[in-house]
Amino acid sequence: MAIAERPLIYEGTRVPHPIPTMLRVDDELREMGDILQVNFGPNHPSTHGVLRLVVDLDGEKVVGLEAKIGYVHTGFEKTMEQKTWWKAITYPARIDYLAYQNNELVFVLAIEKLLQLETPPKATWMRMLLCELNRIHSHLVWLGTSALELGAISVFWYTFREREALCDLFELATGYRLHTRYFQAGGLAEDIPKGFEAECRKFCKTMSPGVDQYEALLDKNAIWIERTRGLGLLSADDAIALGQSGPVLRGSGVDWDLRKSQPYLAYDQVDFDVPVYHGGDVYDRYKLRMDEMRESTRIVEQCLDAMPEGPWIADDRKVVLPPREELHTSMESLIYHFKIVTEGYRVPEGEIYVAVESPRGELGCYVVSDGGPRPWRVKFRAPGFAALEATATCMRDALVADLIAIVGSLDTVMGEVDR
Q1: Among 127, 205, 383, 384, which has the minimal tally of Cβ within 10 Å of its Cβ?
Q2: Contact 406/391 with Cβ under 8 angstroms?
Q3: pLDDT per residue over 288-300, tens digit each?
Q4: Which residue has the higher pLDDT, 224 or 21?
Q5: What CA–CA distance (Å, rounded) separates 96 from 417?
Q6: What are the structural domains, with CATH classification, of the chain?
Q7: Of 217, 205, 215, which is closest to residue 290 (Cα–Cα)?
Q8: What's the angle, vertex CA 28, arms to CA 25 and CA 31, rounded to 5?
Q9: Res 349: pLDDT
């Protein structure tokens, strides 16, 4: 399917500003003008989480901006270093409450690479399916909340209609609507339940028409276009210099998606397009996410068609919990179960960096093992943190009314930013 592209509306570089992640008031303007400093947050509902933006205003114009973070600091990475490898899998999903499956995946892949543990094909395809559903889930919440902040209230209810259906699918497969802990080192926690395929196919049939409805509500809405087109400009050079990835990078004309450039799971075995837009504004970032939801739906349907039979988790009793039915009849299985849950398993000494394409871009996990039952070091490369650094560059020459639309278009989740 061909991805529509709009003409290039902005090219140039603004990053050479002394501090590209901070917009400072010009000294001459500060002396001459009547500068008003306003705090947006840390509890403002339109800052997409516990974010504080210190904004300097010259009338309606934003002339200074600095992002203050740390209000929701959770210390997930340090907490994981105090837990066994098996218990630490619980935490990545809570770093980003919208992309929890992708966060689980990147940590589990890191463990498996250190262990050199092979995952059954069925687990690989199911992981890919759930990660794409998770991408749709994240984009739906982004669209609904971003539209709500700009006054398009009805779109919020339309997006949450599909979002609720997605959460039902997650609950059917994993037992939980959020923070599932369904991905385990070696595969999945449980087999795919009966009825999941039929319900998932039913969702796919409604998803693409749903995206058409969102666009019908917004694409010809004069207010939406006025508040998104030509705002929050970020050139390709600026996006690269600021370490952007995902929709923010591709919305600035850079064709880079880890699913295509560095395939993992079975992405090299499915057919999908990578949407790329060249305008670098809020509108292009919106249109790109619409296209991504359609592409993710295509991938999910291909996963259902290609889903193999067989085991859903590796048969390595030193790493994987034994089947529950064996615990009643096998003392050896009971011992393995007890040791994994209480002491954990040991991972060979080494270090690894694994990256996946989350809904917000390159989500990386750097792990160091000293050969013990706990990770010596865990560090996540959060794409939302990098996106937040582009706020000041995108805000140049913007009005205060544009601030919320621009910040929202970067799609930052503060739990991921602060960690």
Answers
A1: 205
A2: yes
A3: 999 999 999 999 9
A4: 224
A5: 9
A6: 76-418 (1.10.645.10)
A7: 215
A8: 90
A9: 93
pTM of the model: 0.89
Q: How far apart are CA 54 and CA 57, in angstroms?
A: 10
Backbone Cα Rg of the chain: 22
CA 36 – CA 396 distance, rounded (Å): 17
DSSP 157-225: HHHHHHHHHHHHHHHHHHS-SS----EETTEESSPPPTTHHHHHHHHHHHHHHHHHHHHHHHTT-HHHH
| Contacts with 291 (C-beta within 8 Å, 6 or more apart), sequence order | 3, 273, 275
At 114-137, the pLDDT tens digits run 999 999 999 999 999 999 999 999
Q: How far apart are CA 385 and CA 418, in angstroms?
A: 8
Cα–Cα distance measured from residue 51 to residue 73, given in angstroms and rounded to the nearest whole number: 11
Rounded to whole angstroms, the Cα distance separating 347 from 226 reads 54
Q: Are 355 and 106 in contact (CB under 8 A)?
A: yes
CA distance 95 to 172: 23
Looking up tokens 């949450």 gives 160
Q: Per residue in 24-38, is it b (16+ CB within 10 Å) or e — as a string? A: ebeeeeeeebebeee
Taking the C-alpha atoms of residue 364 and residue 387, their distance in angstroms, rounded to an integer, is 14
Q: In the structure encoding, which two tokens stand for residue 276, read together? A: 């790329």
- DSSP, collapsed to helix, strand or coil, labels residue 349 as coil
Q: What are the structure tokens assigned to 168, written together? A: 């039902």
- How many whole angstroms separate alpha carbon 296 and alpha carbon 131? 9
Q: 239 with 281: CB under 8 angstroms?
A: no
